[in-house]
Amino acid sequence: MASIRELHEQLIKKERSAVEITQEALDRIQVLEPKLHSFLHVTAQQALEQARAVDAKIAAGEKIGLLAGIPIGIKDNMCTKGVPTTCASRILENFVPPYESTVTQKLADAGAVMVGKTNLDEFAMGGSTENSAYQTTANPWDLSRVPGGSSGGSAAAVAAEECVVSLGSDTGGSIRQPASFCGVVGLKPTYGLVSRYGLVAFASSLDQIGPFGRSVEDTAILLNAIAGYDPKDSTSLKVEIPDYAASLKPDLKARSKLRIGIIKETFGEGLDSVVEQAVTKAIDQLQNLGAEIHIISCPNFRYGVPSYYIIAPSEASANLARYDGVKYGYRAPDAENLLSMYTRTRSTGFGAEVKRRIMIGTYALSAGYYDAYYLKAQKVRTLIKQDFEKAFKQVDVLACPTVPTTAFKAGEKNTDPLSMYLLDLMTIPANLAGLPGISVPCGFDNNNLPIGLQLIGKVLREDQLIQVAYAYEQSTTWHLRQPPF
Ligand code: GLN
What is the pLDDT of residues 139-168, one digit of tens each? Predict the structure, then answer.
């Protein structure tokens, strides 16, 4: 499948119709889904209707935007009016939102064609999609392996060309980690850049929606469409939005040298040697492109995982209190009284990982423990933020691996939550500090599994991050490789 710009050219030159492009995506979904399981719901009819509307505009000689007629997948934790939104949980099995999230509304307004809702770890808690109550998504590079998570469905769908681009959400790495495992580009924007109205909340001080694409440019085009102030989201930032896809250059040569910092602490114990080699080579390449390389120390990074796994479950325990069988969603049958209805609903409606986090979070927030756990974790969060502030006095962009390993086998880690949590080591700090981060393909291991380079930028400097990622991508061929599946 072609890039957004190529498809746009084909559409306006009337070489292909939006219906043909959409049908091609739907056909691929039909062929691949029995093995891939990226989608929880395919919205074929609605997609074809949207495509027809784009074709009608073209026929009438109206101007269309870049995303018009482009097939897109949406993670199933973003509310879509009239289309099931399950968060891959039993508790929302029959939930059909009566309203539309801001991001999906913006995409619909731009003429993008939603082909379906993608699989995830239940309520976005996890790193493999194995916590989905419905299905585990396979990695298109090796079907016996996980695509990463929690936005694994969105990453796999783009890698396998079931859609051109997709949306995910990233609370502790859930866009960047699956992008790395699936060999695609994934960007977590600055906290507040993209509206979260209609995103089902997991950990409110960390959650951000962001784009996946097969190239940096496609990812940037999608970011253009979703970024911007939204009065419906009180955490949304009122800022000027640049055109992220405009004036991208194939090198980093500028009057004042771009400074890139290697985060020293991310190169140590636990890092796979193939990942280390690939990322080191990528940094050399950035130097060749004109960047100045510095070694930076972020000594508090190692406390990211422990503080995140207090803060995220605490916020989740509060956010998930609303699923009580009363207001909406699943209600357990045959309860004797109100209390047993609550307990049965929640104990059968939620999966094991979600319940584990609700328990940890409730414990950490309870009187007597609050100061020792939650407050302490928030203080550590400040230290991590200060590490970044110091680093960004010396450099413009930080570089490190996205994940310490490549994709693991399904079933390998899902009985050991701690080993799964540890994989988030390099992605969590950006969430704790609210900073933008991107993962770009930077190599393959001996099993032909993709490796990701992570770049972390200053607050609201997505433009700079995208420029660095683009220059790197254009000087390599990693993004051109296609999964065997
Ligand atoms: N893997 C992390 C977790 O399980 C991140 C999840 C996310 O970013 N949504 O919480």
Answer: 999 999 999 999 999 999 999 999 999 999
Catalytic residue among 38, 75, 132, 180: 75
Confirm or reject: Cβ of 172 under 6 Å from ligand 1.
yes
Give catalytic status of residue 409 as yes or no. Answer: no
For the chain, give every domain's residue range. Answer: 4-249+437-444+472-480
CATH of region 4-249+437-444+472-480, choose from 3.40.190.10, 3.40.50.1390, 3.30.710.10, 3.90.1300.10: 3.90.1300.10
Give the C-alpha separation, 389 to 298, whole Å: 10
Residue 1 clears pLDDT 90, i.e. is over it = no
| DSSP count for the chain of H helices, then E strands | 15, 11
Closest C-alpha among 136, 118, 48 to residue 80: 118
Contacts (Cβ under 8 Å, ≥6 apart) of 40: 76, 84, 86, 88, 116, 117, 118, 119, 132, 134, 135, 153
> Cα–Cα distances in Å, from 147 out to 137, 150, 187, 237, 406?
7, 9, 16, 32, 10
Cβ of 152 closer than 6 Å to ligand 1, yes or no, is no
**Known active-site residue 101:** no
Look up 3 and say whether it is catalytic: no
Distance CA 305, CA 429 (A): 8
Q: What is the value of pTM for the model shown?
A: 0.98
Q: What is the pLDDT of residues 184-239, one digit of tens each?
A: 999 999 999 999 999 999 999 999 999 999 999 999 999 999 999 999 999 999 99
- Each residue's pLDDT tens digit, 405-442: 999 999 999 889 999 999 999 999 999 999 999 999 99
Residue with tokens 């991310």: 266
Q: Is 125 in the pocket of ligand 1 (CB under 6 A)?
A: yes
Q: Is 290 left (phi over 0), alpha (psi -120 to 50) or beta?
A: left
